[in-house]
Write a structure and sequence with these properties.
The structure holds 2 protein chains of 2 kinds. Helices cover about 40% and strands about 20% of the residues of chain A. Chain A has helices spanning about 5-20, 35-40, 50-65, 75-80, 85-90, 125-130, 140-155, 200-215, 230-240, 260-265, 290-295, 300-310; strands spanning about 20-25, 45, 70-75, 100-105, 135, 160-165, 185-190, 195, 220-225, 225-230, 245-250, 275-280. Chain B has one domain: 3-Layer(aba) Sandwich (Rossmann fold). Chain B is about 35% helix and about 10% strand. Classes of the chains: A alpha/beta, B alpha/beta. Chains A and B meet through helix 3 and helix 5 of A and helix 5 and helix 6 of B.
């Protein structure tokens, strides 16, 4: 199974063949699919070295001169080492000038599980969502990624692409209708409870749905693949009919992440139900273990989530 | 594209008059809006005059983002107040706007942003300009465009780690269209740079990264003109850095050689005295 980055970079390679205004930058971060770009587009591929600040700055300069730029690095490093560069040179500057820089951050959540807490990325939803003008793409599968390639070229604004480091199973088919302006998709309609999630955790939500189905409990599942901007009114209209809405993320809760997005959407008048936030509490994960083990310890695996849901019903 | 004087006929008297006029106008702006960084804005006056009135930069005030302009990034943006009267006089925006600086609704603040015609990028926090300029220089080179890229940086700005990343990048990628001017006024916010972490040997630091280095008197308009012009014309596969030795607060006795001049606001009496002194010289 191919990873998100390999699918995306493979598609970018095809676009670079026909579009001379695409530049690919990396902060010394590789991928099997990147080797072809390195070889065939020497003039438009640059490894800036382990220098995330310069990755964003050089990307900004290229984009000011009308290049479409892909800036590729490990997610926690690019979002947090270069946060001021993203804020000043992408978020702020794009208020005035057109800048199409696409930050590709690989390693969402606990994807780099055994590498430890420096490599875990559980703050980025909060901090990037904070920045005006930045489109935030958080895909759950590779079909979304394939569809996003042309959108990333066409929509000329800074973007953050939050990719999982691991290969994930498919959710969407080639025929599935996907609208990036809506920004979300109903994967399952439920009765009283709806799980709203993004990225890797959408797969966990689907597992929870399957397990509860065995107990004759039918829950809804929604995949939010554009965390900003999305059609909040439409999302409210769909969620308002549920008694319980549960946000589920591989990030800190109560700190401005997906949970904050959902609570803000549901704070409109007319919603009488309850909103529950599931994710990481206010601590880092030092335990060594694979992602499933770590999720189990943090109670965001399917069993932990089902226990929480059982408390509601 | 506009060139104010013929590059072969440098009218030094004219440029010196311009520099004095810029200092006086900058002091008047400081009187209107004491929140401006006056000392930091006085050290690069001759640099701005040489660039804009000395025929170095190609620019079009009626179309500030014209594709065939030279790109200029004022990375030490807090020191760009002295550029406001220049840009206004050249027609980037109306001269009357200068009176509104710092007032509600004005687009002229203590630190410029790209909403002001003539400013390209977002500066204010230090250490961003050179890296962005590297990207611009690389883009122009890849598109076989002949325009040059200039960056004005402070010496205190060189402490930022992002500058190190950009210096390595520019040297490695032979960005010959990139010209970095250091306004080497030797004073940071709190004290002399030599008393913080000495930046010496400055020339050698650039040389080992593959840059052409030249050190000049940053208040000598003839030197500035000649060096900037040859840096722009020289396409030798290396980026250029011009270390311009300057005096922070130059032209105002109340500021010169005061290690705390960065944060100093002049009183109306000091401004009046400074303008009188400049007018007599």
């Amino acid at each position: 199974m191919a990873t998100m980055r390999d699918i995306f970079i493979g598609e970018i390679y095809k676009r670079m063949k026909v579009d001379e205004l695409i530049f690919f930058l990396t902060a010394d971060f590789g991928a099997p699919a990147l080797d072809r770009i390195r070889k065939d587009f020497k003039e438009r591929f640059i490894n800036v070295g382990i220098a995330e600040q310069n990755l964003i700055n050089v990307g900004t300069g290229l984009a000011l001169e009308r290049f479409t730029v892909y800036a590729y690095a490990i997610a926690p490093f690019i979002t947090m080492r270069a946060y001021e560069q993203i804020r000043n040179n992408l978020s702020l500057l794009s208020s005035v000038r057109e800048i199409n820089v696409n930050i590709i951050g690989v390693g969402a959540g606990l994807g780099y599980d055994v590498s430890g807490p420096t490599h875990h990325c559980i703050e980025d939803i909060t901090i990037i969502r904070n920045l005006p003008n930045i489109l935030f793409f958080s895909p759950s599968d590779c079909e979304l990624i394939k569809r996003f390639v042309d959108y990333s070229i066409k929509v000329k604004q800074p973007k953050y692409l939050r990719f999982d480091s691991k290969a994930l199973p498919a959710i969407y088919g080639k025929e599935t209708e996907i609208d990036f302006k809506t920004g979300f998709k109903i994967l399952e309609k439920g009765e009283k409870i709806c799980l709203v999630s993004t990225g890797y955790m959408v797969h966990t939500a689907l597992k929870v749905k399957d397990e509860l189905e065995k107990l004759k409990i039918k829950i809804g599942v929604i995949d939010i693949f554009i965390l900003k901007p999305l059609d909040e009114e439409k999302l409210f209209d769909i969620l308002k009919d549920y008694s319980f809405i549960i946000s589920l993320e591989e990030g800190f809760v109560n700190k401005g992440g997906l949970d904050s997005l959902i609570r803000t959407v549901m704070s409109r008048s007319g919603y009488c139900g309850r909103v529950l936030s599931l994710g990481m509490d206010d601590s880092y994960t030092f335990e060594v273990g694979n992602r499933e083990t770590l999720h189990c310890k943090r109670r965001i695996d399917a069993i932990g989530i089902i226990d929480e849901i059982k408390k509601l019903i | 594209m506009q060139k104010i004087i013929d590059e072969n006929k440098i009218d030094l008297v004219y440029l010196k008059k311009k520099a004095r006029w810029v200092r006086i106008e900058t002091l008047k702006i400081h009187a209107l809006f004491p929140g401006t960084r006056i000392a930091s804005s006085l050290s690069p006056v001759e640099i701005f005059v040489a660039l804009y009135y000395g025929g170095i930069l190609d620019f079009d005030p009626t179309n500030p983002l014209s594709p065939d302009r030279d790109r200029i990034i004022i990375s030490k943006a807090h020191g760009a107040v002295s550029l406001y009267p220049i840009l206004a006089e050249l027609g980037f925006f109306a001269v009357e706007e200068l009176k509104n600086i710092g007032k509600d609704g004005s687009f002229l603040g203590a630190i410029p942003d790209p909403n002001i015609p003539g400013f390209e990028t977002m500066n204010g926090s230090l250490g961003h300009g050179l890296g962005v300029a590297c990207g611009i220089a690389l883009a122009l080179e890849r598109k076989s465009q002949q325009e040059s890229v200039f960056v004005l940086s402070g010496d205190g700005e060189l402490y930022e780690g992002s500058v190190f990343e950009a210096l390595m990048f520019a040297g490695e990628h032979c960005l010959q269209n990139l010209n970095l001017i250091i306004d080497n006024n030797k004073i940071s916010m709190l004290e002399y740079c030599k008393d913080i972490i000495d930046l010496k040997p400055l020339e050698e630091k650039f040389k080992v990264f593959g840059w052409d280095v030249i050190r000049i008197d940053g208040h000598n308009l003839l030197e500035l003109h000649n060096v900037l012009m040859s840096a722009k014309k020289e396409k030798n596969g290396r980026p250029k850095v011009i270390i311009a030795d300057t005096i922070k607060g130059k032209g105002v006795k109340a500021l010169e050689y005061d290690p705390m001049s960065h944060v100093k606001t002049l009183s109306p009496e000091e401004i009046k005295k400074a303008i009188e002194d400049l007018e007599q010289n």
